[in-house]
Design a protein that fits this description.
Number of strands: 5
Distance between the termini: 67 Å
Radius of gyration: 19 Å
Order of helices and strands: HHEEHEEEH
Shape: globular
Strand order of the largest sheet: 2-1-3
């Protein structure tokens, strides 16, 4: 009996990684700051920049599963560092502009591939 075209195609299993797992993996890939040796954090935000929390925060976890007002990510770094945020309640950026990333992976890549001094 001849196989139909559908039967001949191999079955591909798609591995779904939850947004929380992606965020945790991105944070684990971050390299230390060359100035203070601390690790930055990746914060969960909506598209308007409202902070929802970090990976261990229940509000951030709930928002990752149902981002009703869009989803973006920002880098956070301690204020004691020369390249850190201005205060503990703001993310990294300059001139009042904070960098927003569409994915946690993009934020991690940007941090990890910055210019080496």
């Amino acid at each position: 009996m001849a196989k139909t075209e559908k039967e001949e195609q191999p079955v591909r299993k798609i591995k779904h990684r939850s947004p929380l797992r992606k965020l945790i993996a991105a944070e684990e890939s971050l390299v230390p700051c060359p100035f203070c040796k601390d690790l930055p954090r990746i914060g969960v935000h909506d598209d308007e920049g409202n902070f929802k929390g970090f990976a261990e925060n229940d509000i951030a976890r709930e928002y990752l599963e149902d981002p009703w007002s869009g989803l973006s990510f920002r880098l956070w770094h301690p204020s004691k560092c020369p390249v850190g945020t201005d205060d503990p309640h703001s993310s990294m950026g300059f001139g009042g502009y904070n960098f927003q990333y569409p994915t946690a992976e993009a934020a991690a890549k940007d941090w990890n591939t910055r210019a080496v001094l």
